[in-house]
Structure formats: C-alpha cells, structure tokens
Automatic annotation (TrEMBL), chains A, B:
GO terms for biological process: amino acid metabolic process. Transmembrane segments: none annotated. SUPFAM superfamilies: PLP-dependent transferases (SSF53383). Keywords: Pyridoxal phosphate. Residues 12-319 form the Alliinase C-terminal domain. Belongs to the alliinase family. One of its GO terms (molecular function) is transaminase activity. This is Alliinase C-terminal domain-containing protein. It comes from Hanusia phi.
Length: 324, 324
C-alpha cells in the first residue's frame, strides 16, 4: 500500500538519479544545477511547453518554427487559435523577422540525423534531443544545458521502451520547470512505468552502456549495407549528412548511424512521389512532405528487427535494379 | 518486443472493455455509444478539457466555475491569461450572468459528498464523477452520459491505485474526444499502468464488485463511529449531507458514506480556524478556505488504514471533551 498512494516513496528520486547518471555515462548532457521534469513521453512535453510559452506570450497564436526538414510530429503542435506550427509556411528569413516566434531545434535531426544549432537568436529555444545517444551519433561536447536551458528527452530512443511513455526535460529555470510539471504528471507519473524505466536505466548503467555499443554495432552494419546498396543506384540518393566527429564515448572518430534513412528519388515519373515509388516495391516510408520537403524525399525507419531490415535491403536493391 | 513498441496490441481495447463493464456492474454510468478517452489520472483531464474549451472560445480568459464548497484542486486550473477558475470570486448569480463561463459539477461532491446537478444551463458542463462509486453513495439512476456528454473518472477512487495514474473521460462528441486524446497520452497511456488497471478492474468484475461491498462495510462502520462521536459535541458539526436513497446495487436504501468528513467548528476562539483547532489536537485536515468556505470549515480524509482511523476518532473525542 506504500506504493498504491499518490507519491510512492523513493521512485521519482531514484529515476531522476538514474537519468542524471545516464547522461553522464553517455556524455550527452550536463545536468548539474538543472531541474528534471517528467512526463508521459516527450510528445506531451512538446505541446505543454508551447502552451506555457503561449500563456506568457503577448500575441495570439504563439508561432512555433523549425528549419526544414523538420520532425513531422511538430505539425500537431498547432492547437486552436493558441499555437500554430509555421515550419511549412515560413522560411528562415520570415521566421527571423517574426519576433515572438519560438524555434524548435531537433539535434540530431529527425528525419536526417543532422547536428543542428539554433538558426534564430531568441531568449528561449526548445531543444528536442531525442536522438542524442551514442547508438546514433558521435558524442563530442555534452549538451550545454546552462546555455540552452530547455531540452527534451525520451526513454524510447535510449532503451526502446516506447510503450512505457517516459520522457523528461532538462530545465534551467525553476519557475518554468514547476509550470511544466504542473501540466505533465501533476500528481507524479505512473509508478509502474517509472519502475520499468528505473530497471532499464540501471541496467544500462551497470553494464556501462552495453546497449550503446550493441546499437552502434547494429546500426554501423546496417549503414554499411545501405551505403553499399545506394552506391550504384544513380536515381536514388542518401540525404542523411552522415557526419563524422571525435567521439568521447569510444575515444575515436565515429561516423553517424542515424535511425532513419532519409533519401531522395531522382527522375521520378510525373505525379509520382518517392513514397509512391517505395510503396510500389512494398517498402514502408513516410513522405517528404510531412517534413516540409518536396515529394521526391522520403524517410524509412531503421527501427526494425534484423530479418525485417534484410528484407528491406532486398526490396531496395530490387527497386534500384528495376527502375534505374 | 510486441509490448515495447508504441501501441502494444490489445492493451487499450481490453482496458476500455473492462471500464465499460465496470460502469455497468456499479450502475453508475451509461457508456453505450460514448467514446472513452484515457489520461494519466483525471487531474490532467481537468486541465486539458479547459484548454480545449478555451481554444474554441472567443474570450480570454476562459472562466471555469463550480458552486461552493468546491474541490480545492480546481484553483490550479487557472493558467496564465488563458484559463481562470472563478469559483471563489463569483456567486451563483454572477456566474449565471457570465455567458461563456463553464461549470464543473462534482457529484458526489468533494469535500462533502453532496449529489449535485448543474446550477447553470450551458451547452456543455464538465462532470467530475470521481466519487460516484458504491462505496461512497447510493446508486440510483446511472449517470446519463448522453444528456451530459462529458464526465471524468479515475481509478484511484475505485480500486485505490492512485500511483498508477489511470483516468478516463466518457465523451459524447467524437471531435472533442479526439482533441482530448491528442493532448492526453497522444501516443497511448503507459502500458504498465494500463496492465495494472486491467488486472484490478477484471478482479472487481470477477468478484462481482466485492471491493464495493467491502468499502461500504468499512465506511459504514466508520460513519457510525463518527456520528456517535459528534452526537454530544455541541461545538462541532458534521456538514456532509449524508443523504440516503434507493440503491440499485444492493436493492435497498443506502445512506451515503463519503470518503471525507466535512465539518464545522462553532464557537472558535478569535483568529483561530477550524483547521488550527484540529491541528492543535494532532489531526490532519484541509482548511475550509481551500474549498471556498469560511475558516470555520475543514475537511478530514477518511482514506486511512483502520488503526489510523481509530487514532483519529480518539483525537476527535479528546478535542470534543476538552474544548466543548
């Protein structure tokens, strides 16, 4: 019954401690003197952050902007007359002129894995750091939470526990952190999902990041196959930057292994999108337009089991051979 | 891994089915042709409902009102310039004149257990039905969800699993239900807490509501002791209505056994509240002012283990004997 009541003792504090140590192990964020806000995943954090910024802004609606290609989920941040996502409508120049607009910086970016910095200079920028983990990219300097005091994180992209809905924000300002926590899990997040998160995170800590190494090995192997496959496909191009940089986690240079393949189809038949082409070969994807890009772009998820990935490569190879 | 991904198969539908059957067993709400929206507890539902109503209202702020004594938690619905809870400021006449204001009807009411109907006639009223379960009150007609298409419910007051954060709304309008679900658990509620809720609810169903009978027996015994104790306390009064009515669950008349004692202190020393008096005898309580009432009122929680309740009764008896 100690765990039945509203605030089961020791759960939240243990999860918070685990998360701070996890960031230290991965080397992806400084958390000293920062507040941790918990929510049921990072998706609710995205919308409640816009609500809070809206409630203290003067104009209606609050405009939210991200550079293209942007995460397709941001379009659902638009909410009544209160919040409007304008990533599609406004280019960088227009956004820069829009004084009250808030920039979302996804880094590494979804869909392409690009390492990004803010384009606009605003007092507060929202950093979506979902993919800033060693299995996806090199870890150079840890994210400077003091300089950028609002970043959003999710367990789903670290340990895979998407259905447990565990997200958190690293927040510098106490008043903002309190306001966020009042909207996200105001009476604590579900105890059971916190316990699963504690188990998963403490396992990562105890094994000194074995899952990071495993994920890197898996994704490195997959990207080798992807790059091999695209090498002779003259009508299809990988559009991920696949940057490399010195990686403090392994103490050597690491080339990015993002979880999504972001690609372009060249010489498409009229009226046909890259997504149409892929789907006609039985390949699941999300069309470029969801990310603010032309229909010649598409995103393929690499969050699949190995047998599924192998079939995906066969289908791509077949498409390359048949249409190019 | 089938349960690791975003939408684990069969979980949400099984919980929803359990909840519809639970309402049927308790006889407290009709759910046919109604949509169920899930959230992490009913507290987030309260605020997201006001956000959605605000986003489609013309004026700023959206005013939310409830008749006194009102649930103390409603004051935290106030949010920036967007939403303002005016239960404290506006009496019934003022509220009735405020055309765009939204009424919250808590029935049975917190703090006193009163069975309530809307005071204002508005197109949409929000019903907070947290305490509409057989352990707290008689079950006459099931709540007519078609006539009142927005009611909020929580597992914490049925099976006690407060820390699992499982709340739901019964909603008539599909568009409103979709808008609510977009803000509450947009990618599903945490799987683990849903599984705990499924286990708990299916147990209640399999035992044909044994917990309702157990809860009634417990609370009936406690209220007998409370009423006995107050009988000779001329300076203290029970302020719960403790109504009785025909109960379809047991097929006989049942007198309410609410989970909170709502009381008034008479002949208080100057500058002293009822809460001060209670606390000076070591009794935990919440002051009447949180519920929009004078400081001569206070609410005591009966959600305590039996030994704690027995000590509470001793302390009350001591206070009655010493101060009256």
């Amino acid at each position: 019954s100690e765990r039945l009541g509203y605030f089961p003792a020791g759960i939240r504090s243990r999860l918070e401690e685990g998360i701070r140590r996890l960031h230290k192990l991965a080397g992806n964020a400084l958390t000293d003197n920062m507040h941790i806000v918990f929510a049921d995943g990072s998706t609710p954090l995205l919308s409640l952050v816009t609500m809070i910024l809206q409630s203290s802004s003067k104009g209606l609606p609050l405009k939210v902007w991200a550079r293209k290609p942007f995460y397709s989920g941001y379009s659902s941040l638009s909410f009544g007359d209160l919040v409007k996502f304008v990533g599609q409508e406004e280019n960088e120049t227009a956004a820069a002129a829009d004084e009250s607009l808030v920039e979302f910086v996804t880094s590494p970016n979804n869909p392409d894995g690009e390492i990004r910095s803010p384009v606009l200079s605003r007092p507060l920028t929202v950093f979506d750091k979902a993919y800033s983990w060693p299995m996806y990219t090199f870890m150079d300097e840890p994210f400077n939470s003091s300089a950028h005091p609002l970043s959003l994180w999710t367990l789903s992209k670290v340990t895979g526990h998407a259905s447990s809905r565990v997200g958190w924000a690293i927040v510098g300002d106490k008043a903002l952190a309190d306001a966020m926590q009042m909207l996200a899990c105001p009476i604590g997040c579900p105890m059971e999902s916190q316990m699963v998160a504690i188990s998963a995170i403490e396992h990562v800590l105890q094994t000194e990041g074995e899952i990071f190494k495993w994920g890197r090995a898996k994704f490195t192997e997959r990207w080798r196959k992807i790059e091999d496959g695209f090498r002779n496909a003259s009508c299809y191009r990988i559009r991920n930057p696949l940057a490399q940089g010195f990686d403090r986690f392994s103490q050597k240079v690491y080339k990015q292994t993002p979880p999504y393949l972001w690609m372009e189809c060249l010489n498409l038949p009229a009226q046909k999108s890259c997504g149409d082409m892929l789907r006609s070969f039985g390949i699941k994807c999300r069309d470029g337009e969801y990310f603010g890009m032309p229909p010649s772009y598409a995103r393929l998820s690499l969050y699949v089991a190995t047998p599924v990935f192998d079939v995906l490569m066969q289908k791509l190879t077949n498409m390359f051979a048949t249409t190019c």
